[in-house]
Write a structure and sequence with these properties.
With about 475 residues, the chain is of the alpha/beta class. Among the domains are: about 10-165, Methylthiotransferase, N-terminal domain (Rossmann fold), CATH 3.40.50.12160; about 175-290, Transcription Regulator spoIIAA (2-Layer Sandwich); about 415-470, OB fold (Dihydrolipoamide Acetyltransferase, E2P). It has helices spanning about 10-30, 45-60, 85-100, 115, 120-125, 145-150, 200, 210-220, 250-255, 275-285, 300-305, 315-325, 345-360, 385-410, and strands at about 5, 35-40, 65, 75-80, 105-110, 135, 155-160, 165, 180-185, 185, 205, 225-230, 265, 290-295, 330-340, 360-365, 415-420, 430-435, 440-445, 455-460, 465-470. It is globular, with a radius of gyration of 23 Å. The structure holds S-adenosyl-L-homocysteine, iron/sulfur cluster and FE3-S4 cluster (F3S). S-adenosyl-L-homocysteine binds next to strand 15.
């Protein structure tokens, strides 16, 4: 094994359960019936970690509430990917700190990637005295111990030491949904893209054992879960640190054999590692969603090199061609960064032409944000903010028209969709929300009893971001 991955032992977990028990007694003494609130920022990995935090809090006798201002324990699970993400968190910590004045004894914990980010951790130490606990992703599994330490001691608790990372199985989890679930297959990242903070805050790539992943999915499927997303910063490096000969394509094929009516999504795939084996597995596996999230970041090979992405524009386009050969009708989504240091107008034009050439259904678009500790932080960046904003707006306009066109092409067709909840925005006409196998959002009209079920929906209308449809007996054409 190339890295020093530590697997948390059963004894270590048992010790945490003991801490949880002791903490539950202390919490009851202090609060009577303790309540807890967990707020999540950032990506699906953090959503998944928040389910673990809620599971552990529930084990400690806390009732999870949806309003932070009323909670006894407030946990902010933070993100460090862009400066904006951190600014938002600091604003909210300030607000919770203000409220704490009226409710002494409240415990405020800040965890997640920002807590592991050196400069932010320092700032919390110095300027946010009402934050009781700061711990990074590496210390997540020790949350009961850390909370216990805070409850018995006078000192604030900091657990932000650098680490290659751990794999901990068997932590309690309170899932957000019975219909859709996250399943991490690996943690950390080894790619060190020059702009990205993730490898510094999430540690080295480490894979869960296939048997643990498969058992978790089998139990989710048996409980009626309909949609599973396999998570990893680069799922295509799954298994590289294990010596059992597995890889992501093999794992996908094994998941496909698990009984149950569910679909499998995964994210994220790195273009340098996604290839024929993956596409072939996606094509063969009936449960694999016909969707690939393949972040390209820039259309300029020169910028890609400076980003340390490990592929060129041409190689990216070739991967897309190959993927589409194996999976006709594949839906592609991607991430792109505008205004990376040194990006010229010509580089940016190359990003636009790549977007046009590929035709993504949706794009997550970001303006470059310098992160301390990363190589791009100190790269010369002469492009004025207004120029970056103009490029960003142009890109968005182009993508919006592509999304609108691709969604428009779906009108009149029938798709199998999973009804996943009530529609918050569609009003009376479209009271339900659903997703196609490829992840497109479809607003539907129908009875609430359909939630959690697959139905066929005929698409009757479309917008840039979503589709409208009606439930139909018609069989699926897509
Ligand atoms: N592991 C995933 C992405 C994780 S972060 C991958 O490699 O695709 C999600 C997205 O945030 C990235 O794809 C990138 O587009 C964006 N991002 C990361 N760091 C950024 C930064 N410093 N500034 C702007 N966008 C950034
Ligand atoms: Fe960040 Fe690159 Fe790793 Fe993705 S692959 S998490 S962008 S370093
Ligand atoms: Fe995710 Fe943000 Fe961390 S994107 S991995 S929560 S830095």
């Amino acid at each position: 094994m190339a890295y020093n991955t530590k697997r948390v032992t059963e004894q270590q977990l048992a010790a945490q359960r003991d801490y949880a028990h002791e903490a539950s007694v202390l919490l009851r003494e202090r609060f009577g019936t303790p309540t807890a609130y967990v707020e999540t920022y950032g990506c699906q990995q953090n959503e998944s970690d928040s389910e673990l935090l809620r599971g552990m809090l529930s084990d400690m006798g806390c009732t999870l509430v949806k309003d932070g201002s009323q909670a006894n324990i407030i946990v902010l699970n933070t993100c460090a990917i862009r400066e904006h993400a951190e600014t938002r968190v600091f604003g909210n910590i300030g607000a919770f700190g203000y409220e704490k004045k009226n409710r002494p004894g409240t415990v405020i914990a800040v965890c997640g990637c920002m807590a592991q980010h050196e400069s932010a951790a320092e700032k919390m130490k110095k300027s946010y005295p009402y934050v009781d606990m700061v711990f990074g992703p590496h210390a997540l599994w020790r949350f009961p111990e850390l909370l216990h330490r805070r409850l018995i001691g006078k000192k604030r608790v900091f657990a932000v030491e650098a680490s290659d990372g751990f794999v901990a199985e068997g932590i309690s989890r309170l899932r957000d949904s019975d219909i859709k679930s996250w399943v991490s297959v690996m943690y950390g990242c080894n790619n060190f893209c020059s702009y990205c903070v993730v490898p510094y805050v999430r540690g080295r790539e480490r894979s869960r054992l296939p048997e643990d992943i498969l058992a978790e999915i089998a139990s989710l499927a048996a409980a009626g879960c309909k949609d599973i997303t396999l998570l990893g910063q680069n799922v295509n490096s799954y298994g590289r640190d294990l010596d059992c000969g597995t890889d992501f394509a093999k794992l996908l094929r094994q998941v496909d054999k698990i009984d149950g009516d569910f679909l499998v999504h995964f994210m994220t795939s790195h273009p340098k590692d996604a290839g024929e084996e993956l596409f072939a597995a996606m094509a063969e596996c009936k449960k694999a969603a016909p969707h690939l999230h393949l972040p390209f970041q820039s259309g300029s090979s020169r910028i890609l090199k400076d980003m340390n992405r490990g592929y060129t524009r041409e190689q990216y386009i070739e991967k897309v061609r190959l993927a589409r050969k194996y999976i006709p009708g594949l839906t592609l989504t991607s991430d792109v960064i505008v205004g990376f240091p040194g990006e010229t107008e010509e580089d940016f034009e190359e990003t636009l032409t790549l977007i046009e050439e590929v035709g993504f259904h949706a794009l997550f678009t970001f303006i470059f944000s310098p992160r301390s500790g990363t190589p791009a932080y100190s790269m010369e960046d002469n492009t004025p903010r207004e120029v970056k904003q103009r490029r960003f707006d142009r890109l968005l306009d182009m993508q919006n028209s592509i999304s609108a066109r691709l969604h428009g092409e779906m009108v009149g067709k029938t798709y199998r969709v999973l009804v996943d909840g009530e529609n918050q925005t569609g009003g009376q006409d479209y009271n339900l929300s659903s997703r196609t196998a490829s992840g497109r959002l479809v607003h539907l009209k129908g009875d609430k009893s359909l939630i959690g079920k697959y139905v066929n929906a005929r698409i009757t209308g479309s917008t840039t971001w979503s589709l409208m449809g009606e439930v139909t007996e018609e069989t699926e054409v897509k």
